[in-house]
Amino acid sequence: MTAEITSPKSGSGPRGSRWFWIVGIAVVVWVAAYNLIQPLANWLTYQLIALPAGSRLGESLAFFLYDVPKIYLLLSGMIFLISLLRTFFSLERTRAFLGGKRQGIGNVLAALLGVVTPFCSCSAVPLFIGFVESGIPLGVTFSFLISAPTVNEVALVMLLGLFGWRVAGLYVASGLIIAILAGWGIGRLHLESGVEDFVWQVQMQASNEAEHLTWAQRIQRAWQSVKEIFGKVWLYVVIGIAVGAAIHGYVPAQAMAQIMGKQAWWSVPAAVLLGVPLYSNAAGVIPIVSALMEKGASLGTVLAFMMSVVGLSLPEMIILRRVLKPKLLAIFIAIVALAIIITGYLFNLVI
Predict the structure, then answer these.
(1) Vertex 25, ends 235 and 44: CA angle to 5°?
(2) What pLDDT, in 10s, does the model give residues 152-202?
């Protein structure tokens, strides 16, 4: 897949067909691998290594062995897909779609796009890179980065079944508002210098004459993007997942429920602080949400906890550090955390 691009006609005829066969086989292998990693991780942990099922070490190791290849597959697949799609749009067209002069509309569109994309926080990172590379304004990109993991369709269905349409609707509305306002605020601060240099360097290599590329050229460019970006972030993924796996196996949910179940003024910020170190998607945190509600926690506190888990998880921050400089990463965390805390207090006052 590293053949040199020589002419616009390289995608036609037998050679072009060869690329479609390669991609087709790669898709089949990708899907098969994605469906095999969980049973393989369980087999390695509980059969080959023979750790007791339900043990803290076993839970942590199984989580790590499952999530690392899962995120790797999502990273490579999403980078390839986005890079391939990006070859059909010039930078000007992409900016016109989500950017333009009215960033407020761009923030709304990006947040809505994030709602309908089924990605966890870590797998949203390659999408963030693709957005930045395509010339979409940074604030608009952050609106997507926040809404994609925060508003999850599986969690929405589960909340609807457990707590009714009112809570489910508030969950969606609050997630969208946070994503839109936080992204808009970051955009107004003009913090483009806070993005790591290699992201802009990849952007500079993008072609403004994408519509003239052949399929072979598009596929080769997408594969090249996979190698370049994956090579820069893979270690951060391992570190982030390792932290999340340790927390997953050794932090008891019952203890968190007891702390957050108390009615006090500090319950909302405490919920956000407790949620940040955890690593889960929105659907995975629903059982904890249910336990907190049973313990008497207020709705605003529970929603604040849930949004901090999926929107400000420590593993995601570790991975984001590869593409964001410390100052921008700190500003991102502060703005989102403040928005979540305010939302939690407002819900507690209203409901």
Answers:
(1) 50
(2) 665 676 667 667 788 778 878 888 988 898 888 888 888 888 888 777 665
